[in-house]
Amino acid sequence: MTREDYDRYVAAFNARDYDTVFDFYADNPRMAFFGIEITTREQLKAFYGFLHSYVTETVTVERFAGSDELTAVEGIVRIEAFADLTREVLDANGMEQFFPIAKGQVQQMRQYIHYHLENGKIASVGCALVP
């Protein structure tokens, strides 16, 4: 995956274009992060559709490294709530490990994201937060 490819991927993500985002993935991908596992287009749309009904999430890439087998990104994920996302709502949606956020609040997190590639498509994703 080239930097230009990744920039198109992030632009689609930031625009909430989940079908275009999923088009970057191989058949049967595995996205695992913070206790969430996504393996289908429908799961991706359900997870982000729910989350983004409460917050605006934007990814800003600061560092990028790519090869035929791996893309590694360091960036800032900015979450801004436009509606209260409470502990109760998170828990009811299987997101106990996520933090509540009130309308108007902003959270910024530095993340390292690794994308394992197969035939130019994303086969799996893992990420870690940096304190």
Automatic annotation (TrEMBL):
Domain of life: Bacteria
Pfam families linked: SnoaL_2
SUPFAM superfamilies, per the entry: NTF2-like
Domain SnoaL-like: start-end pairs: 7-124
Signal peptide: none
Protein name, entry field: Nuclear transport factor 2 family protein
